[in-house]
Design brief:
Rossmann fold; single chain; 33% helix; globular; seven-stranded antiparallel β-sheet
Amino acid sequence: MWLRRSVLVALTVGLTVVAVAVWVHSNGLRSQLLAPEEAQAYDLDLIDLGSGRVVLPRTDETEARGIWGLESATAYAQVGAIIEQTDETVVRSLQTLVGELSPGDPVRLDADAFPGDPKEAHGLGFEPVRVPGDLGPNPSWLVEGRRSTWVIVVHDRGDDRRQSLRLIPTLVDQGFPVLVMTMRNDVGAPRSPSGMVMWGLDEWRDLEAAAALAQLKGAEDFVLIGYGMGAGVISTFLNESDRSGEVLGVVMDSPVLDLEGAVDATSSAIPPFLELSQQLARVRFGLEWEHLNHVEAADRFDVPILILHGAADTVVPISMSERFADAIPNLVRLERFEQAGHGGLWNVDAERYSTEVTEFLNLVAGTE
């Protein structure tokens, strides 16, 4: 009797510990995936600068090849080629765009590479428009163009409309009107009742509203461009919206095509424990993992898709895009950027990136 009671007590304690741990881990999933991300900290100290060059601490970030933004609280610049480096420092070319940097300034590297808006970044006129979504108006940018095919851009989680600034000149040069949208829970946009980022489960309606506004302004059809989570928003839109028939093609940059798979691939948690936490997140937060697995639903897609993905992406492994492309090879072209991480493809090879997008646009929308 005593032994049986001891075993029951031990089992009860063990199950309680597991239940508490799973609950806590599901909270972690909420913070990791569903809470709107805060702005990145200024995590570098600018060591020195002068004569078109800047000295930064040597890190994996600061020695990444390509063009990157360098941002302080009051200034914005671009760093380019590595001029020299030591064990502790990296010297890179520098072009200041806004304000003035000084030695000792706290700074951060920025993949968006340009400050402000289309006017400030490129001298392009644009109209601030408010897309009437189901929760209220979503502030957006509209850059006019001469064509009847419009491009709508959907940003990644943790980013904003500035993510489009690297590509907008290429789109404008091709004559496309460009609508850069925001979504619920973005800064300046309406907050959803839960306040949670839902990876397209809800946000596809904001894309639908953007498409509706574009049609009112003369769009006859669309090309959609989505970064990271934005590609997932587009994927859900294609499967849910009555307006999906007007989409000629889709460009996906570092797409999250299977959220659960991305979590599985990057988590250090024991698989059974992770599975329990994910199922609890489904119950607690309405996170319907299966509806966000677009790889398994690849046969539902019927438009041409260009995927641009970095082989060094540690956030969303390129294997996810490879499986998606293998499932519908007649629709998907996957372009690997060997040295690029998540969302940094343009930065590593801007010329190739712009060329790939231009060729795809010519393919699906024709040339003028």
